Amino acid sequence: QTDQYTLLRGRILDFHAAPQDETDTEAYRYIEDGAILLAGGKIKATGAFAEIVALAPDASITDHRPNLLMAGFIDTHVHFPQVQVIASWGAQLLDWLNSYTFPEETRFADPAHGAAMAGQFLDLLTCHGTTTAVAYCSVHPASVDAYFTEAAQRNMCMIGGKVMMDRNAPEALTDTPQSSYDDSKALIAKWHGKGRAHYAITPRFAITSTPEQLEIAGALVTEHPDCFVQTHLSENHDEIAYTAELYPDAPDYLGVYENYGLLTPKMLLGHSIHLTSREIDVLAETRAKPVFCPTSNLFLGSGLFDDAGLRGRGIQNAIATDIGAGTSYSMLQTLNEGYKVLQLQNQKLHPLRAFHWITRGNAEVLGLADRIGTLANGSDADIVVLNARATPAMALRMQRAQTLSEELFILQMLGDDRAIEETYVAGVPQKRDHAGARPEAV
Ligand code: GUN
Ligand code: ZN
User: Hydrolase among the record's keywords (predicted)?
Assistant: First the structure.
């Protein structure tokens, strides 16, 4: 029935591989007058407008010209209970956790608070063009229920899990090895694979887990090989030193996780900044994935992620906001700061590679590139509409832009939620207005 078809018209960009620059035209697809045909939450066809409209002459057409249509952005490391922690002054990692983050996360013992924050969190993501995220929930199972319930209401492809933490945190925020195992197991049964939800087994980091808890986390990973795993690695020098005290027998920080069997290709390691050559070898061998969190790393003064060094070893990495140590929900602003982190190391981030990173690149790291991250036929219809003239400063700069790469770099450096004209999740527009109100709420 053609009346169930929707056609989005606009300029189209998606990626087949990571382009180094604009001469690498095999790596991407750009269509000046393009269209995407949607039905049932999926992309049915993407191509030239004239061809696509011929496939479904009765489709309802939304004309987004002259804006740019891309796959929805993917944020691979974010803390949903930290929506009221973002922009907390004056501390580096361990003090920041103790002073701001842990007290705030204790409030998620109240399921009503978790539910309210989950809704706001997901509205913020889609308002900023992010359609999939990998989140840490709080230690409380109810926070995971809140997160996946709200995600299901929006039909979003979301990944997340209950934080496991049984020491070095306030009592109200600690579980036990057994309770963390039982709760994680029950949440996996309840949510993993339900609709678009994926579970991530989530030991917070070595400092907040006893050896007994990391051992039981390893059992969960073995028992649920299709779940993601996420933790933090080598973000800050004091953190690394304390980890070495707590795990004196481990060869290094990554060796702690390695010893408990946590390293698989589905393991996401937030930060991964200060790595030894042995740790880099282990990453290459296990195909566990480092996650670059530029706004957070600069905000907490943590250090500079060595993107080129890791890529040079064939290690695929992801990029993420790390809200609430990160300072923006926008993956565009994340690329802006990422560009500068690489500049400080004499590394280059070309805008085409940048936009690959936050779409297909992150999707590949998650092993989900057949569903999200591109505009390929059969993909889920998660799409972002980008306006490079969204603000006066952008419009003025765009008057001098002549190439697609220039336009992308303007979006990367000057763009934020104002540049997100619309965000489609499984074919449904989420934005409508810049307050982030969803269609059913309007
Ligand atoms: N390491 C352990 N927990 C956290 C957290 O919540 N944020 C950051 N940035 N690092 C962490
Ligand atoms: Zn984090």
Answer: yes
* Whether pTM exceeds 0.95: yes
CB neighbours of residue 47 within 10 Å = 18
For residue 322, the ligand closest to its alpha carbon is 2
233-266 confidence digits (pLDDT tens): 999 999 999 999 999 999 999 999 999 999 999 9
- Pocket of ligand 1, candidates 86, 97, 237: which has the most ligand atoms within 8 Å of its Cβ, to mutate? 97
**Separation between Cα atoms, residue 123 and residue 154, nearest integer Å:** 9
Ligand nearest to the CA of 207: 1
- Quote the ligand 1 centre to 163 CA distance (angstroms): 11
Ligand 1 atom closest to Cα of residue 270: 10
**Four-residue CA torsion sign, 430, 434, 436, 438:** negative
**Within 100-223, where are the H helices?**
102-106, 111-127, 141-153, 177-191, 211-223
Which ligand 1 atom minimizes the distance to the CA of 235? Answer: 10
Which residues of 56-136 form beta strands (DSSP E)?
Answer: 60-71, 73-79, 130-136
